[in-house]
């Protein structure tokens, strides 16, 4: 009996839930720690905006390529090993990003950093699906809320350290120490197994998985628009001063984080389907308000509505992909994560093209229509 018991995978409990939250925090913290370093890297390497944009694509390429591989590795060797390995890649890349100036080294380092982020992001969502299902409770929004908290802590923390006079390298040393401390706390209770690995190693998403992935793409596209274009829109269209242009994304991020931290209760009371419907409508209304309002104060309210509306749609979609039977989890979860990342990476570039051909307002109204489509999809998606 003892031999049989030791071979069976553990059933995730409270300690595994705690480790999942910490892993989400690490993912958000590690990603956001890079943002304040971008101007330093640009100046150190003597990059113009176009070259910097091309270099940043290397980060996205590393992430997208790592995600399906991470799903395969997690199914064979367990979530713990992949999460630890991905986190160590992040810790290896960050000090290089704070110091290197040669473009070939930056390309390699950004690709490495992106691979670490992609591996962690994909695998922690796979673990979250397993842990939530074992608990029998709604937990996904809370997990994703810790990613948002980590993002705020990473960006604000590194910015504060730099403002205090630390060099980028020493600021990153502090970041790495915190990441490793969090990893040591979480690692013993990360899952030593993944989901069942029946089926092919790679598969093109299809059926309901493709449908869910496209919804993730749309929501992440809206998030990418807030990150990359809200400040430009506020300064060029609403007349806000450059020093306050970041308030648009701040309003979005604040309500996004608050919505996710309260999300498990919201999903439990309203139901997953209604969360998608109402979330899509709130986000669409917010995007329309931000675009059409005559003043920047109303635009900030619109961005806040976008954050609140989008906050729990993606967590609900991850729960849904854990319930489907069309594709194995270790393929389906990385697939929708990859499509989501594509929305963040390719979406802002597409917005730029549309804005060049027409206007930035027209691009935002197109996103409004796509968010309405998400709301309509919530009525037909089985969640």
From TrEMBL:
Subcellular location: Membrane
Origin species: Pseudomonas bubulae
Membrane topology: Multi-pass membrane protein
Keywords recorded for this protein, A-Z: Membrane, Transmembrane, Transmembrane helix
Residues annotated as transmembrane: 21-40, 52-75, 82-103, 109-131, 143-163, 169-191, 203-223, 243-262, 274-294, 300-321, 333-354, 360-381
Primary location: membrane
Designated name of the protein: MFS transporter
Domain Major facilitator superfamily (MFS) profile stretches: 16-383
């Amino acid at each position: 009996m003892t031999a049989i018991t030791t071979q069976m995978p553990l059933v995730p409990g409270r300690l595994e839930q705690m480790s999942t939250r910490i892993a989400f925090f690490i993912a958000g913290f590690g990603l956001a720690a890079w943002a304040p370093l971008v101007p330093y890297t640009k100046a150190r390497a003597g990059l113009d905006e176009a070259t910097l944009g091309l270099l940043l694509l290397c980060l996205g390429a590393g992430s997208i390529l790592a995600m399906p591989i991470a799903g395969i590795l997690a199914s064979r060797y367990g979530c713990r090993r992949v999460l630890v390995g991905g986190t160590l890649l992040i810790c290896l890349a960050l000090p290089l990003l704070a110091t290197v100036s040669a473009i070939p080294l930056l390309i390699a380092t950004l690709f490495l950093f992106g691979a670490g982020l992609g591996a962690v992001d994909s695998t922690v969502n796979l673990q979250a699906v397993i842990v939530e299902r074992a608990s029998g409770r709604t937990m996904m929004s809370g997990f994703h809320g810790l990613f948002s908290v980590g993002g705020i802590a990473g960006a604000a923390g590194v910015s504060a350290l730099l403002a205090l006079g630390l060099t980028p390298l020493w600021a990153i040393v502090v970041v790495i120490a915190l990441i490793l401390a969090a990893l040591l706390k979480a690692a013993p209770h990360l899952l030593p197994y993944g989901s069942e690995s029946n089926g092919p190693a790679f598969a093109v998403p299809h059926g309901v998985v493709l449908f869910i992935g496209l919804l993730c793409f749309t929501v992440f596209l809206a998030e990418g628009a807030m990150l990359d274009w809200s400040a430009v829109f506020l300064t060029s269209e609403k007349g806000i001063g450059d020093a306050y242009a970041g308030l648009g994304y701040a309003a979005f991020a604040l309500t996004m984080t608050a919505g996710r931290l309260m999300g498990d209760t919201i999903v439990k009371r309203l139901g997953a389907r209604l969360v998608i419907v109402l979330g899509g409508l709130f986000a669409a209304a917010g995007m329309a308000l931000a675009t059409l309002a005559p003043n920047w104060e109303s635009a900030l309210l619109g961005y806040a509505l976008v954050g609140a509306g989008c906050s729990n749609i993606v967590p609900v979609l991850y729960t849904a992909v854990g319930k489907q039977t069309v594709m194995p989890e270790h393929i389906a979860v990385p697939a929708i994560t990859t499509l989501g990342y594509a929305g963040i990476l390719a979406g802002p570039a597409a917005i730029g093209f549309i804005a060049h051909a027409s206007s930035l307002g027209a691009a935002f109204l197109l996103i409004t229509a796509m968010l309405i489509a998400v709301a309509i999809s919530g009525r037909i998606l089985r969640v």
